[in-house]
From TrEMBL:
Residues 1-20 are annotated as: Disordered. Residues 19-80 form the HTH tetR-type domain. This is HTH tetR-type domain-containing protein. Coiled coil: none annotated.
Length: 204
């Protein structure tokens, strides 16, 4: 899904803004963050140069880098896409494999280790990243668990939030630790095989 580009932070009077310039600025900001540029090191001048626009063009849209990064993160939001219904095992494997592919290939996913690694020291921006990027991904797995509990495929006593933390966290931890989950011991299939018996054991 293509990036959604929010309206710039402020809209003072002046010439109509170029959508192309806004896209270039947002794209340059995200690219620099993915490359590991910290918030402390990120400068409006460097973003303008990377985007190929003048500083005046940048400052007409965003008053400072906090506002710029905030809008850049907002552009990463994608609504959750439900997993096609199969068995509970297959639904979880599909969701985790989608999560892995997203984390490895998308701009939003590739920002994950950088944010956890302290590139962004701002609590407000970290929270925005979680809301725009992480929560929609968690919602997919949460819905699988709630649906399976409602259909009695999983026991009603299963805690969906605790299970979500284990399932979701297993994949993200491995991605942040090694950059991939290609190893057999940490593949989506293996993670589900380890976790699913424990979930079903709650029925006993």
């Amino acid at each position: 899904m293509p990036r959604r580009f929010p309206e710039p932070h402020r809209r003072p009077p002046g010439r109509p803004r170029s959508e192309r310039a806004s896209r270039a600025i947002i794209g340059a900001t995200l690219d620099m963050l993915v490359e590991g540029v910290s918030m402390d090191s990120l400068s409006m001048e460097a973003v303008a140069a990377r985007a190929g626009v003048g500083k005046a063009t940048l400052y007409r849209r965003w008053p400072n880098k906090q506002a710029l990064v905030s809008d850049a993160l907002a552009s990463l939001y994608e609504p959750p896409v439900p997993v096609a219904r199969g068995s509970v095992r297959q639904d979880l494997i599909t969701a985790l494999d989608d999560l892995r592919r997203w984390a490895l290939r998308s701009t939003a996913g590739r920002l994950l280790p950088h944010f956890l690694g302290g590139v962004c020291p701002s609590p407000e921006l970290r929270d925005q990243y979680v809301r725009a990027v992480i929560e929609p991904r968690k919602a997919v797995i949460r819905e699988i668990l709630r649906r399976r509990i409602a259909s009695r495929d999983l026991h009603p006593d299963v805690d969906p939030e605790a299970t979500l933390t284990v399932v979701f966290g297993s994949v993200l931890f491995q991605l942040v630790l090694t950059g991939d989950t290609a190893e057999q011991d940490f593949s989506p299939e293996h993670i589900v095989e380890l976790i699913l018996p424990g979930i079903r054991a709650c029925a006993n």
